[in-house]
Design a protein that fits this description.
585 residues; mainly alpha; 25 helices; globular
Length: 585
């Protein structure tokens, strides 16, 4: 210190040692990451208030040089949709988990929202969003972001809701003992406990967004046609022009983008969320790591920059909860009043449902005959058979693979980006192969178009089985090894019971996703060649393209009815049985 005090001004040796050690290589990496994100966000936001290009004006360029910009624009839309999905998840799912009356409405409503196909949302919202900024690109961008949001939010909300319902009782009692406010408990207990499962469902939701990005960026509803620069509209134009080379470049661009997402977002999130795991046994491998998370954690500049924000956030925790009200002894009159309030609540809910059903039926049957409504139900039965058969086949393949990967963390980390890419792979890119092969071999589209429905949804089964297998306690595996439990007995007594609740979550989500995917898979086109499978998805796709809102609403109502009835009579009871019978708790 004394020797350095005589150094000339501007000499690095004149600075105190603490200052010299402030800037490190991690600071440089972190600053580059932050500045890069800001620059990319600014570049992607350019042109929002520019006039929207009309159809046929060459808005989309099939040159490979245009793909980096298109990939950036699509990624920004998906990030915006993910931010909206998180806000929706934290509010909607929390209300459903905290209030029994809200749960009775919000969870069935979430079943309905999950069953509504993305084309259904687009057909009724595109005009509204376009009217917010007439003739400007901003309105179309909002419509595309909302469409992608509808492919992400429901899965995340279900995951967060189930996590809030399964917070360990001892942790809840600890939060009450420390008199945590509702706000502090939410951020210090509920969100951390739900974060590991939520991060994995975020990854699957992003994959679902990629699956429907073509419909979100190349919107065609009746006479309304909107084409936004992006990977989805690039793929749509390549399919329309039968350009095999452009489809190959689109596949390469998607692979590059998904790998970047894995390195810059998902791998850091998985590594960060691992700290919140509760009651997990040692998996035998090192904890997940991510160079981006390491850079942000070790950067002193980032720590200095976010210190005021962290202090402000911690200040919100100081809001003390209101004093607990004294419990009023129950009386006969009070219990009678409570029963009447309950009856009035159910009566109000029933009245709203009947009114909505009456308005929907009135609108539909002004343009659709009763005979066509019956035919739509038969089309729904055909799609239902496809969904059940495909879920069964996918389960036979991916349950063994998921168990094998879940018991080997190193292999699971290698398989994760591969599965993400396959999950995000749009079925539209396989249309050239599928349509050409079916037409050339004169195969039945009702059978051979069906696999396209499961391409993007089967991964829900794989990811959830991996998560379930990774939580099998080490002592269970050791007991099986010591007792020489092998072969089918090992699967029947250890593996399948342990992963069955997780499998049910994946199967329910995959089933709902397959219903949505039917609108893409049951009506496949490649240039001038179009193949159609008889089903409800093809019916909705044709009605949307024609702008026939009566048939669009009818198709959506029938699909929602099928999904809700199947969930309530088959999947939900089976899920409750799995939790009650096979829970490791």
């Amino acid at each position: 210190m004394i020797a350095n005090s005589s150094a000339p001004a501007g000499d690095p040796r004149a600075a105190p040692p603490s200052f010299r050690r402030t800037l490190t290589v991690w600071d440089l990496v972190a600053v580059l990451l932050v500045l890069g994100a800001v620059v990319l966000l600014a570049q992607a936001s350019l042109g929002l208030m520019q006039p929207l290009p009309g159809p046929g004006t060459g808005a989309i360029d099939l040159s490979p040089a245009a793909l980096p910009e298109y990939a950036l624009r699509t990624s920004m839309r998906m990030l915006a949709a993910m931010a909206l999905s998180l806000v929706f998840t934290f509010t909607y799912a929390t209300c459903a988990a905290r209030s029994r009356h809200a749960e009775q409405i919000l969870i069935p409503l979430l079943d309905i929202l999950q069953s509504v196909p993305i084309l259904g949302f687009i057909s009724v919202t595109v005009v509204f969003f376009m009217s917010l900024a007439p003739g400007k690109a901003l309105g179309a961008e909002l419509a595309a972001i909302f469409a992608i949001f509808t492919s992400q939010a429901w899965n995340m909300a279900f995951s967060f809701y189930h996590s809030l319902r399964t917070v360990p009782k001892e942790l809840v009692e600890a939060s009450r003992s420390f008199r945590l406010s509702a706000w502090m408990r939410f951020w210090r207990l509920d969100v951390p406990f739900a974060m590991p499962a939520l991060v994995w469902n975020m990854m699957m939701s992003i994959s679902g967004g990629w699956f429907f990005v073509v419909a979100a960026e190349a919107i065609s509803v009746g006479e309304t046609t909107v084409t936004l620069p992006g990977v989805g509209s690039y793929i749509a134009l390549a399919i329309e022009r039968r350009d095999i080379g452009a489809i190959g470049w689109a596949i390469a661009a998607m692979l590059a983008v998904i790998l970047l997402w894995d390195q810059l977002l998902f791998r850091p999130l998985v590594a960060w969320a691992d700290r919140f795991r509760v009651g997990q046994d040692d998996t035998g491998g090192p904890p997940p790591r991510a160079w981006v998370l390491t850079a942000l954690r070790r950067s002193r500049l980032i720590a200095t920059a976010i210190a005021p924000l962290a202090a402000a956030w911690r200040w919100t925790y100081r809001i003390a909860p209101p004093p607990a009200a004294a419990r009023v002894p129950a009386t006969a009159a009070g219990e009678t009043a409570a029963r009447w309030r309950e009856r009035l609540w159910y009566a109000a809910v029933a009245a709203v449902c009947l009114f909505a059903l009456w308005k929907t039926a009135t609108f539909v049957f002004t343009g659709v005959t009763l005979a066509e409504a019956g035919r739509t139900v038969l089309l729904g039965l055909a799609t239902m058979v496809r969904v059940f058969v495909l879920i069964a086949l996918a389960s036979l393949v991916w349950v063994p693979v998921g168990v094998w990967l879940g018991l080997r963390p190193a292999a699971a980390r290698i398989a994760q980006p591969v599965a993400q890419f396959l999950a995000a792979f749009p079925a539209n890119l396989l249309f050239p192969l599928a349509v050409s092969a079916i037409a050339a071999l004169r195969l039945d589209p009702d059978i051979w178009l069906s696999p396209l429905m499961i391409l993007g949804t089967q991964w829900y089964i794989l990811f959830n089985v991996i998560a379930g297998a990774s939580t099998i306690p080490g002592e269970f595996r050791d007991i099986g090894t010591n007792l020489r439990v092998r072969g089918w007995l090992w699967w029947r007594r250890i593996a399948l019971p342990a992963v069955f609740p997780f499998y049910m979550t994946g199967a329910i989500t995959a089933s709902g996703g397959s219903w949505n995917a039917s609108i893409v898979a049951e009506l496949a086109s490649w240039g001038d060649t179009t193949l159609k499978a008889h089903g409800l998805g093809a019916y909705i796709a044709e009605a949307t393209a024609a702008g026939d809102f009566h048939r669009v609403v009818l198709g959506i109502a029938v699909m929602s009815g099928f999904v809700v009835v199947i969930n309530r009579t088959f999947w939900r009871p089976l899920y409750a049985f799995a939790e009650r019978k096979f829970s490791l708790d």
